[in-house]
Amino acid sequence: MISEFHQIKRLPPYVFEEVNRIKAAARNEGKDIIDFGMGNPDLPTPDFIVEKLAETAWDPKAHRYSSSKGLPGLRKAIAGYYDRRFQVGLNPETEIVATLGSKEGFANLAHAMTAPGDVVLVPNPTYPIHAFGFILAGAALRHIPISSGDAFFQHIDQAVRYSVPKPLAIVVNFPSNPTAQVADLDFYKELVRFARKHEIYVLSDIAYSEIYFDDTPPPSILQVEGAKDIAVEFGSLSKTYSMPGWRMGFAVGNPNLISALTRIKSYLDYGAFTPIQVAATTALNGPDSVIADIRAVYKKRRDVLVEAMSRSGWDIPAPKATMFAWAPVPEPFVKLGSMEFSKLLLTHAEVAVSPGIGFGEFGEGFVRVALVENEQRIRQAARNVRKFISNADQILADYESKGGAAK
Hints:
Helix 8 (185-198) links the parallel strand 5 (169-173) and strand 6 (201-205). The protein has helices spanning 6-9, 17-28, 47-57, 72-86, 101-113, 128-136, 150-162, 185-198, 255-268, 274-285, 289-311, 337-349, 375-390, 392-401; strands spanning 34-35, 96-99, 119-124, 140-145, 169-173, 201-205, 231-236, 249-253, 324-328, 351-352, 354-355, 366-370. The radius of gyration is 22 Å and the shape is globular. By secondary structure, it is α/β, with parallel strands linked by helices. The longest helix is centred in the C-terminal third of the chain and has 23 residues, at 289-311. The chain has two domains: 6-44 and 290-401, Alpha-Beta Complex (Aspartate Aminotransferase, domain 1); 48-285, Type I PLP-dependent aspartate aminotransferase-like (Major domain) (Aspartate Aminotransferase, domain 2), CATH 3.40.640.
């Protein structure tokens, strides 16, 4: 009897599990953990969206099977959003499919388009599903150090020249989770030119496109002429409208890839609960002011985090976008690596972060800090961090005396 299955063996141990274990144990002891670990939005979903959900849920017909492709009204609302936000026209019938969050859509498209042994270029560090979706589909990965500059194109050019077989697809994610890097339209123009030349698909994840802090909104790859020939883009309502638990997202772009995703989904699900799809339609057709309000909260939290942590002795670069800060491990703890630093920070400062190594080997030396605690809690975390850093010598001595075990 097989006890460990092939697909499961392809997945590495869950890097965050050790931090989660310490966090759970601390909470069981009654400790008040300030949790910047998981990017789980804490802001309430706007009232008008919740009210539409409740209203629709009272309709008995809404409790029947829904549509895996997405209700027609929802797909039209997604098209309307792209027209307003990016000045991109989309055909709701052939270029849009609703997904159960962007994560589900990405993983299912990886299965739909990938044959065992296909090569896919994936940024590193990156959100885990960008790599593991293709790993589970049987692909071979080539990791590309994340960048939105010339170095990125040097790496993918080299990867294309030395990969056998030729890469099937390139994954990009801007604004980036976890690094918060952004890309401009010129970057996408060069990427589209490269991908069309080499006949490679591009899978673009823009889940954080509405959480930005500069005057210029992040662009969509579909704004580039010819992008639909090779690109599909994934979006999500989770952060834009603070709807993470609703699991509502979409994929748009290349009709061939959208058709493949739509077909595989038709075998796997009946789509999100109809009231959720109706409420999502209401959100996308609603006022942009609610998006601006959510963005303003994250900007304020970002500013408080950067300023308070700087005064505590931890210099964290201010992210230009996303709900994350990509923070270098403070100097006294660099030699330990991001995992051991995260465990010590949790144990001694009661502050949880995500170790950068969990997002890929090139994430080592950093931790991801999610802006999911209010300003008061951020300032409290900074006070805890100040004590932690000021006691670094003693903490490290105790750590070494225990043979390098945080707890």
